Amino acid sequence: MPFVKAEHIISTLHDWEIYAPPKRPDQWVDGRSAKEVARAWLAGSGKTFPVEVENVLNGSKNFGLTQSWIAEPEAKLRFDAFGEPSNCDLAVHVKDQAGGYILAVEAKADEPFGDTVKKTIEAATERLNANPQSNGLRRVHQLKAAILGRKLEDQESDTRIRYQLLTACAGALCEAERNNYSRALVLIHEFITDRTEDIKHQRNANDLNEFTIEISKNKILKIEPGIIYGPITVPGNPILISKVDLFIGKVFRNIRGAEK
Predict the structure, then answer these.
(1) What is the pLDDT of residues 167-226, one digit of tens each?
(2) Terminal-to-terminal C-alpha distance of the chain
(3) Which pTM value belongs to this model?
């Protein structure tokens, strides 16, 4: 079984809940992303990806037929020496004919992509004022430089970019580098359910588009579901040493009405 967490084999929803639970117990409910991503990926009995994921990979010239894979739910992908790593809902190490790559799955029902970079900087500044040893501001500085190619004082995109997308890409890229992969794919796996609201799905789509416009330097203006975009080359320094190609995509599963 290719789902493993701290040497525990995960083959059922119960296993997933016990060994790889979300941060809060109230997130493990039908119709929300934590449980639905587990259900979707377990449905293939560890032999196949969810059909929407298989289709997007097979439709991309940059990814080939999957030869093998192993996945860790709730994976901690470290990208610097400060604070918490990126919390990846499912980190999948995949091998195809071109070699290995990391497939970093970010599951979303209609939960937001966290605070903006601006709010994150404001919070980090407050922590630094209260504690001179705080590294939060330094972390944001490194992330902006490595992923966006912007200085900390360059605030042009700070109100538009969601910080969680920065850390997700940083975590995936660094995990790829640690494993000598040349590719990192950040895949948003969206779930449309009886518990989600269309207006929030649209907000997330807009936020993803804003991020991709920024990171691609206006080369990618919109993320359409079912397509993988890239390769995108990020500056990398100071969190990356080697060159890793970044890819971004989105798939969705509509189970609205099917949960009853």
Answers:
(1) 999 999 999 999 999 999 999 999 999 999 999 999 999 999 999 999 999 999 999 999
(2) 29
(3) 0.95
> CB–CB of 171/19 below 8 Å?
no
Helices (H), the chain: 13-19, 33-42, 51-58, 117-130, 136-143, 163-178, 198-215
Residue 26 lies in a domain: yes
Specify if 207 maps to a domain: yes
The separation between CA 104 and the C-alpha centre of its own chain, rounded to angstroms, equals 5
Nearest to 228 by CA among 186, 191, 258: 186
What tokens does 136 get? 């939060």
The CA-atom distances, in angstroms, between 251 and each of 24, 192, 202, 254 are 25, 11, 14, 10
Question: Is residue 85 assigned to a domain?
Answer: yes
- Taking CA atoms, 221 is separated from 12, 57, 125, 147, 250, in Å, by 39, 21, 32, 17, 14
Range of the domain at 221: 4-111+161-254
Q: What is the pLDDT of residues 128-138, one digit of tens each?
A: 999 998 999 99
Q: Is the peptide bond before 22 cis (omega within 30 degrees of 0)?
A: no
Count of all residues that appear for the chain in the document: 260
Give the SS3 label for residue 81: coil
